[in-house]
Amino acid sequence: MKILVISDTHGRDTLLGRVLSEIGGEPDMLVHCGDIEGHEAFYRKAVRCPVRMVPGNNDYFSNMPREIQFEAGPHRVLLTHGHSYRVSLGLDYLVDEALARGVDVVMFGHTHRPLIEDFGGLMLINPGSLTYPRQENRRPSFIVMDTDENGKTEYNIHYL
Ligand SMILES: [Mn+2]
Prior knowledge:
- This protein has about 160 residues and is of the alpha/beta class.
- It has a single domain (about 1-160), classed as 4-Layer Sandwich (Purple Acid Phosphatase, chain A, domain 2).
- The chain contains 3 helices and 10 strands.
- Strand 1, helix 1 (about 15-20) and strand 2 form a beta-alpha-beta unit.
- The two termini are about 20 Å apart.
- It binds manganese (II) ion.
């Protein structure tokens, strides 16, 4: 099962085509971690697979739930933009929430810096931003989460 995780597109969606060709076509699930800026319908139409999205701090008019939980293969995933856990300052609040909920993967955005961190078995996943990357190389980034039939999962940051 291949899950494409993107975030912080801020209404500029032109790179999705390149992302899809980079990963060899449609994923099994598309996850957007927020700051979509009104273009939710674009993502729902762009792929045939299930799409999971939450609003970010710039999605003022969205009525989507602010965070959701879902299953991905053997994993329980919490999806949140992350600003309400102050992720720009550190991940302590987000880790506490994830542990309290009993999830094993957290997907978030907001920082515009890609991150894959294994916190004692809790995976913290931030794909960075496709539109306004802030990490050192300033390249648009996303993450592919790939779970095989044995339940082994790989996480990889990709740059365009
Ligand atoms: Mn943002």
